[in-house]
Amino acid sequence: MRQHQPTHQPTADDIAGLIARHAGTEGPLLPILHDIQDAFDHVPQMALPLIAEALNLTVAEVHGVMSFYHDFRKAPAGRLVVKICRAEACQSMGANALSEAVLGKLGLDWGGTTRDGGVTVEPVYCLGLCACAPAAMVGEKLIGRASADRLEAAMEGAA
Amino acid sequence: MKDFIIPWDEKDMGTPAKSGKPVSLSIDGIAVSVPAGTSVMRAAAEAGITVPKLCATDSVEAFGSCRLCVVEIEGRRGTPASCTTPVHDGMVVHTQSSKVKKIRKGVMELYVSDHPLDCLTCAANGDCELQDMAGMVGLRDVRYTPGENHYDPSGTGARSQAEARLRMPEGEANPRYIAKDTSNPYFTYDPAKCIVCSRCVRACEEVQGTFALTIEGRGFESRVSAGGPQDDFLTSDCVSCGACVQACPTATLQEKSVAELGTPDRSVVTTCAYCGVGCSFKAELNGDELVRMVPWKHGKANRGHSCVKGRFAYGYASHPDRIMKPMIRDSIDEPWRQVEWAEALAFAATRLKGIREQYGRRSMGVITSSRCTNEETYLVQKLTRAVFLNNNTDTCARVCHSPTGYGLGQTFGTSAGTQDFDSVEKVDVALVIGANPTDGHPVFASRLKKRLRQGAKLIVIDPRRIDMVKSAHIEAAHHLPLTPGTNVAVVTALGHVIVTEGLYDEAFIRERCDWDEFQAFAEFVSDKRHAPESTALLTGVNAQELRAAARLFAKGGNGAIYYGLGVTEHSQGSTTVMALANLAMMTGNIGRDGVGVNPLRGQNNVQGSCDMGSFPHELPGYRHVKGPEVRKIFEDAWGVSIDPEPGLRIPNMLDAAVEGTFKALYCQGEDILQSDPDTHHVAAGLKAMECVIVHDLFLNETANYAHVFLPGSSFLEKNGTFTNAERRINKVRKVMAPKNGYEDWEVTQMLANAMGAGWAYTHPEQIMAEIAATTPSFAGVTYDRLDELGSIQWPCNEEHPEGTPLMHVDGFVRGKGRFIVTEYVATDEKTGPRFPLLLTTGRILSQYNVGAQTRRTENSVWHDQDELELHPHDAENRGLKDGDWVRLASRTGETTLRAKVTDRVSPGVVYTTFHHPDTQANVVTTDFSDWATNCPEYKVTAVQVTPSNGPTDWQEDYNAQAAQARRILSAAE
């Protein structure tokens, strides 16, 4: 499960407070994006001009950095995020079949969220578990030698 | 005739020039020596060898992303990118080994695998580096299709895009396709053609300094993005300078004009006719059809950069409003009659002669234009001096930079700025006062911002929080938001801090200035009443902040002062210029690179029009008309006797007209009704005249009161020279034949000859020869020399045969620098209960001056009306919201416009621009003016702002009169 459940839609004051924590530090953009995402499970678009103003950057620059990292979301994900590794080692050990099975069962495409907002499935490129490929991550929990059944069990456990 | 020349090599050297010690190396067996720090790619280019490249171009630093420029270097492993590898002594480089050739072909194949091959129907056909490089590396096949791509799935408009479609899986939409962004009026962004080389992003950052572009996403999804995820080019921070379009190697960023008209096949180097930066451009054409204007990289003022006006806003030259035939009328109530040139000139000459007979030779005069060439200006003042036989000549510089001429003349001995623009690259502390460079002088602003990003400090003295105060990656160390009208008090207070805290440069002052005068000045300025604490209440500037700014300027290294009309257009304009000169002298900031006093001139040829004797008391070269030895030079050259009495200034001409003693005016390329203060008074003066001759591109506002209209030629249609803010004389080259039939200097000559002058110039070159022969600071200037050197900064004479980039290097022109006491005297224009707010006026990036040109281009997309900026506090007090119609009233008049509520201005201060004639901001401004030069006080007017329903009676009457006065009968009627 996620560690921080957002309690409300972020306001400009919330964002300003998170930015203020990093005032005067070196290279504060990524830490600020992380803090906002941690607090609200996504980085709302309205935060971009606020960050740009505070760091004397342009919105384009903040957008460029944020969009480079797939982990920063524009909108909140489902309550549970499942990440399946699609890097070379896992693909060679059946990750494609695994993801087809999981996505098919949930009726989702990559990055999609189930209608009830329960589960989001995302690709990830290497979890550092190549020795136990295929690998996946359910919430914060890493799973090696993943199979559709094991993932389903883990998802039920987390729900 | 030398209309068509490009003497310099246009080759892209790949990476910027460096300036280290020489390093010798061998490239493909050719020995070459280049400065340390130079890239292998540039060294190869110097040796005449082109290394294939895509992501490198010499306007931005090397990036090393395309991997096409790989080379082999003996003794090194691998295949380094030549753009990011600096040269070393003794290096042996091979650019054409079988290994690198194979790599390049592979890289190219990958690029082309995601690039639509609609080359024959592509707007960049013939002007595409991807195409060139594919040819250069010998690409003969692409093995990677079908596959994922970014193509337009419809294949619309291009046969080979249909072929592209065939290579995609059947029947599927392309989820990666992003439609073309056509929001900018001048260029398009087509993501399907993007190779993600980042050249546009880097140009926006490094060259322009706006940071409006980024690469969004990663990997195969990476695309260029303007602004944030919701933005397009128009809504983003993009200022449409064109640097990205210039940098783009493909058709991804492409001028719409090229897409419409085709690739240009010839080009003429010329000079922009907008602001005083004086950028060099290549006018690119097919036949006599202008396809695009491209900044010329060898231009010494702009170094290859441009702004939205010079780069794109040239459409006015072919606008349907332009008048091509001369017109006359007996009185201004009548409609215009189109006539042939001979009839118009005879009509004008008869009237002028009649007026001379009836009212005497001093009853007529001329106004020269800072928009016209030196040669044209010279002829217009010659017309009044040698043909009308008086000195009634004035120029629009009267209303902008006349205090600069006076102030710098008094203190340094030369009526001009001291530096070249390259000097900004050595500045440590820049003091910007009364100027808004990002809007008024955008190319200079980009150069200054680049220096600031390298670590130079900035002090801004301006009532408004202009963009230079804080914008992406730059921030002023100190912003002193003074109350309009208190420049002298603030600059004198800076002097107070520097003198009383002992921060002045005694060695410099003793050597270069008059020490006794300095002591008298020091005693004056040390008085407690000039302390920032004493003046804070008056100026509104925080004393501690002012002290910190003074210390920074005095001790921060090379200190350079850049100023604009916010300094000159005041009742104490000349005093502020002298106070700034004092500041530069006391801190030793004169006579070398990176320092100086730099007026940012408003118009392309303000400097030149002043140099050419446009003022009523001065013959060309700033020599007083009272001097018999000066008059003799011109009397000998012209064969006439010159009136020893100075003539009338513009305001005096209008006063005299109202009084009935001034009857005729020849006004070239200036719209005094819109640009001069107190519109009512200007209108009354013009109305009282019996012969007003307007020589212009358009029926401007002044022409509503004219009897003769002579059509003008645009800067694209004439030969001549402009002199920019750095005293740089740049060639203006005829790009096409004048659409109206004659260049402006020819029209003036025809008018003079209709009066019996007998002038016989056949080319402006002959006029320049006459200027050089009569004016010492131009003695060495010839058209041949200008072609050879590209441009020349005056003085150019035997002592300085190649011109003078820096003034006062070994000593001031006047001998010893002169400190002048600068006592603050408040303007008579004061706020009170009826008019509690202070109005100050300024400019905006997309529009230029009275807007006669830019309003007739797509630039109005960005700014289609003048707005009144006011502080939220003042807005709330008056119950005003953003976008409301407001009535702006002063003691002289009133107008209406829309409100823009913003904290850029301080409470008590309101701000607007005067680009649009339906607003007529100058109805409101007063006729107070500079004590020394009569430069109008545009920057301070006491006003009241109240809610309004729409245009004032004045605006409606004015529009009715204008409509009436603009009627034209066609020749047949």
From TrEMBL, chain A:
Secretion signal, residue range per the UniProt entry: none
Family classification: Belongs to the complex I 24 kDa subunit family.
Record's protein name: Formate dehydrogenase subunit gamma
Free-text comment on the cofactor: Binds 1 [2Fe-2S] cluster.
Cofactor(s) demanded: [2Fe-2S] cluster
Pfam families cross-referenced by the UniProt entry: 2Fe-2S_thioredx (PF01257)
List of residues binding [2Fe-2S] cluster: 85, 90, 126, 130
Species of provenance: Salipiger pallidus
Domain of life: Bacteria
Keywords: 2Fe-2S, Iron, Iron-sulfur, Metal-binding
InterPro entries xrefs: NADP_DH_HndA-like, NuoE-like, NuoE_N, Thioredoxin-like_sf
Gene that encodes it: fdsG
Molecular function in Gene Ontology: 2 iron, 2 sulfur cluster binding; metal ion binding; oxidoreductase activity
PROSITE patterns per record: COMPLEX1_24K (PS01099)
Automatic annotation (TrEMBL), chain B:
Domain 4Fe-4S Mo/W bis-MGD-type intervals: 265-321
Alphabetically ordered keywords of this record: 2Fe-2S, 4Fe-4S, Iron, Iron-sulfur, Metal-binding, Oxidoreductase, Repeat
GO MF annotations in UniProt: 2 iron, 2 sulfur cluster binding; 4 iron, 4 sulfur cluster binding; formate dehydrogenase (NAD+) activity; metal ion binding; molybdopterin cofactor binding; NADH dehydrogenase activity
Residue ranges annotated for the 4Fe-4S His(Cys)3-ligated-type domain, each copy included: 99-138
Boundaries of every 2Fe-2S ferredoxin-type domain copy: 21-99
Signal peptide: none
GO biological process: formate metabolic process; respiratory electron transport chain
GO cellular component: membrane; oxidoreductase complex
UniProt cross-references to SMART domains, sorted A to Z: Molybdop_Fe4S4 (SM00926), NADH-G_4Fe-4S_3 (SM00929)
Domain 4Fe-4S ferredoxin-type: 185-216, 229-258
Database matches in Pfam families: Fer2_4, Fer4_7, Molybdop_Fe4S4, Molybdopterin, Molydop_binding, NADH-G_4Fe-4S_3
NCBIfam families in alphabetical order: Fdh-alpha
Protein's UniProt name: Formate dehydrogenase subunit alpha
Organism of origin: Salipiger pallidus
